[in-house]
Amino acid sequence: MSTKPSATLLIVDDSTENLYVLSELLRPYYRVLATTSGEGALEIANNTPKPDLILLDVMMPGMNGYEVLAALRKSPFTGDIPVMFLTALANANDEEHGLMLGAADYITKPIKPTVVLARVRTQLEAKQARDWMQDRNQALEAEVAKRMAENDLTQQVSIRALAHLAETRDPETGNHILRTQSYVQRLAKVLRRHPRFEATINDRYIHLLSRSAPLHDIGKVGIPDHILLKPGRLTPDEMEIMKTHAKLGSDAIEQAERDIEMPLAFLAQAKEIAHWHHEKWDGSGYPDGLAGDTIPLSARLMAVADVFDALISVRIYKPALPYSEARDIIAAGRGKHFDPDMVDAFIDDFAEFIAIAEHHHDFAAPMN
């Protein structure tokens, strides 16, 4: 690896004679800057372009070499500039002290020109290698970040595509996916400050919840059209078939989990939501009749979001209810259908849920 011909050296020595000798030695090979004080060295080093290497005397009036090196290392801009001490201090303890402070090399005076040239070249080549590695690492980090962003986007698009596939079987749901996703995210953000939930609900939990929520009704793809699209109340037998969509959805997600080698947290949460979002706090829900805290937290959150959105949305078998009436129905389900603390949070933050509903409003006319 060859030294850059444009490498810039800064020589710092309070002796003008020493500056002249070193400058004459190094100028044929490098761009040379010089100063007689530590303060001047810091000023030059903080300019752009900064020196590639500093040759620094130790014993100087004002700031000595050790103080200059310490100041260079404290600054993010100059902290990576290699420093070689060129000094008359020949004691082994002095050399050890300089190296412990972070000097790249320590040369005692009187200098030997060939030794100085060789060590300067070595330090510049080492710096060039470090710079190359840093540039390479930054490029690799950028590429990794790009790939991760692409994978994340691919995952989001795949989830949304699957969710929309379920919507094609139930076209009246419109923006139901976007609304319920936003509802559960908002409800979780409010509840993260609650003593019951603060140990579980954090930024990562909310991210996974938002990511997995669109798959809550994926099992509807397995429900026959004559039941899913029936323009009226379902019979008891038809309702039992409709209820199977919860397990159909979780089974499909579980199969997807088996097909991959590494478990994904969002799939585990999506499976919870799909399977248990129709459970009720009092144990009267389906498919397993779970009650209270035995219902997974993610499913309890989705229960509030899903029911609220169903109430305020047009369905083939019913008109949309006013927001206030939907709120009252949710409130009446406190401790029966829904986790009481979730209902309280929903009511307290109701204006935000209305805002979400308005933002993702369905403009398409309902099917006749």
List the helices and strands and how they pair.
Blueprint: E1 8-12, H1 16-26, E2 31-35, H2 38-45, E3 53-56, H3 65-74, E4 83-87, H4 92-100, E5 105-108, H5 113-169, H6 176-191, H7 203-212, H8 225-228, H9 236-258, H10 265-276, H11 297-312, H12 323-332, H13 340-348, H14 350-359
Parallel strand pairs: 1-2, 1-3, 3-4, 4-5
Helix pairs in contact: 2-3, 6-7, 6-11, 6-14, 7-10, 9-10, 10-11, 11-12
Labels describing this entry:
five-stranded parallel sheet; alpha/beta; Hypothetical protein af1432; disordered C terminus; Rossmann fold; 368 residues; 2 domains
Notes on the structure:
With 368 residues, the protein is α/β, with parallel strands linked by helices. Helix 2 (38-45) runs parallel beside helix 3 (65-74). The protein contains 14 helices and 5 strands. It has a 5-stranded parallel beta sheet with strand order 2-1-3-4-5, sandwiched between helices. It is elongated and about 105 Å long. The chain has helices at residues 16-26, 38-45, 65-74, 92-100, 113-169, 176-191, 203-212, 225-228, 236-258, 265-276, 297-312, 323-332, 340-348, 350-359; strands at 8-12, 31-35, 53-56, 83-87, 105-108. The chain folds into 2 domains: 8-140, Rossmann fold (3-Layer(aba) Sandwich), CATH 3.40.50; 170-359, Hypothetical protein af1432 (Orthogonal Bundle), CATH 1.10.3210.10. Helix 4 (92-100) links the parallel strand 4 (83-87) and strand 5 (105-108). The termini are far apart. The longest helix has 57 residues, at 113-169. The chain is 56% helix and 6% strand.
